[in-house]
Design brief:
Layout: H1 2-23, E1 28-34, H2 41-60, E2 69-75, H3 80-93, E3 98-100, H4 105-118, E4 122-124, E5 140-142, H5 147-161, E6 167-172, H6 175-190, E7 197-201, H7 209-217, E8 222-226, H8 230-242, E9 249-251, H9 258-261, E10 273-278, E11 282-283, H10 291-300, H11 313-333, H12 338-346, E12 351-352, E13 357-358, E14 373-377, E15 386-387
Length: 391
């Protein structure tokens, strides 16, 4: 009996020590760069909702391998120079062990090389192709699709479903807008189409009637905007509507954002508008969302006020997926060792994120599946998602 009591006491002490040790683990520092203010803030605020929810969810469940996540947020305001400064601050001064973002590709073009030089793992949520490269940036893994995947889906829909080839290609002067227009031009060329009008617009320009007039004069029969700035997109739709020009618009997913609708001069200006979107945030014929999307929607709705979601749900899903992929890398690696996280992510196959099933390899840093891109109808917005566009 004495031996048993002594054994039990030792066991209880061992468990208590183990619990104390787990609770005393240093937090895992996660650098998070997002343009929470400025012309690109709408998307970043939505993505931030997903990031924060995922961090809270992981911490509530005990953290990763016993360590809680500490989110180090920096508002880049859409400025690549600020983003670069914050990236260096986060990895050098704040000792971030894994980085997420920035949201906008123009900013990420400035930060990804800086983060790569420090060897810090980076979850990339910008879409332009240059942001990932296994040789140059071996620890940068993209959780979102590429610009080419969005552009190709939109171009195919315009040419094959809408049967239109007189395209006005419109971007903004950010790094993302510039690269996207170039990508779209190259893809259309492969398909035997040359845009009749191409323009890059300052995101702060308030009146786009001149650009609409020039596109119309060039004989355009479809407008294809590639900008993540809802203000630019709203002004474009207003200029088209005010000119009484009934021409379809199809482009970046942000053209479907509900905050954009609030900036329109008339609700009807959202008619005839389509965006590259996701199967994950598109309702099927019976009006249902995919299981993983619905599950996240049900979990996060109370945090969003318990009402209908009034922002693009793919933004929330993207932020959530970025943190969950980081968690997967750290948990699989068993530590925050950068080389171990890199190896864990390189060996990741079939990771069930909300927006897609992600798969990587030693020579592959873009894990998003092509068949998860969809074309949606903008004015069918419901609870953050949309109806699929007709084929």
């Amino acid at each position: 009996m004495k031996i048993f009591i002594r054994w039990a006491a030792v066991s209880v002490m061992s468990i208590a020590c183990a619990t104390s040790h787990a609770q005393s683990k240093e937090p895992i520092r996660v650098g998070w760069m997002a343009s929470l203010t400025g012309p690109l803030a709408t998307a970043a605020i939505g993505i931030d909702q997903g990031v924060r929810f995922a961090v809270d969810e992981i911490n509530a469940a005990g953290g990763i391998n016993g360590a809680k996540l500490e989110l180090l947020t920096r508002d880049t305001a859409g400025d690549p120079n600020k983003a670069a400064t914050f990236a260096q601050q986060l990895v050098h001064a704040d000792k971030a062990q894994i980085m997420i973002g920035p949201v906008n590709s123009g900013e990420a073009l400035a930060t990804v090389p800086l983060v790569a030089r420090t060897g810090t793992p980076n979850i990339v949520i910008g879409a332009v192709e240059e942001l990932t490269n296994p040789a140059k940036y071996p620890r940068a893994f993209r959780v979102i699709n590429t610009t080419t995947q969005w552009v190709t889906a939109a171009d195919d829909y315009v040419i094959n479903s809408l049967k239109r080839k007189k395209i006005a290609l419109i971007g903004d002067t950010t790094g993302y807008g510039t690269v996207s227009v170039r990508t779209a031009t190259e893809d259309l060329k492969k398909k035997g189409v040359t845009p009749v009008y191409t323009v890059l617009i300052d995101p702060n320009k308030t009146d786009l009637s001149d650009e609409i007039a020039k596109a119309r004069a060039a004989g355009a029969d479809v407008l294809m905007p590639w900008s993540a700035a809802t203000g630019v997109l709203a002004r474009l739709l207003n200029a088209r509507g005010d000119a009484a020009w009934d021409v379809p618009v199809i482009g970046h997913p942000s053209v479907m954002a509900l905050p954009l609708k609030q900036l329109l001069n008339k609700p009807t200006y959202w008619d005839g508008v389509y965006g590259s979107g996701y199967v994950a945030t598109s309702y099927d014929a019976s009006g249902k969302l995919p299981e993983r999307t619905q599950a996240l929607l049900d979990k996060i709705r109370p945090k969003l006020g318990g009402k209908d979601v009034d922002i693009l749900f793919w933004w929330i899903g993207l932020g959530y997926d970025a943190v969950k992929l980081a968690e997967h890398g750290i948990r699989t690696a068993g530590s925050t060792d950068p080389a171990a996280i890199q190896k864990a992510l390189e060996e990741t196959r079939g990771f069930k994120a909300v927006l897609s099933v992600l798969s990587y390899a030693p020579d592959k840093r873009d894990g998003f599946a092509d068949d998860q891109i969809a074309i949606d109808i903008a004015n069918t917005f419901k609870d953050g998602s949309f109806k699929l566009a007709p084929k």
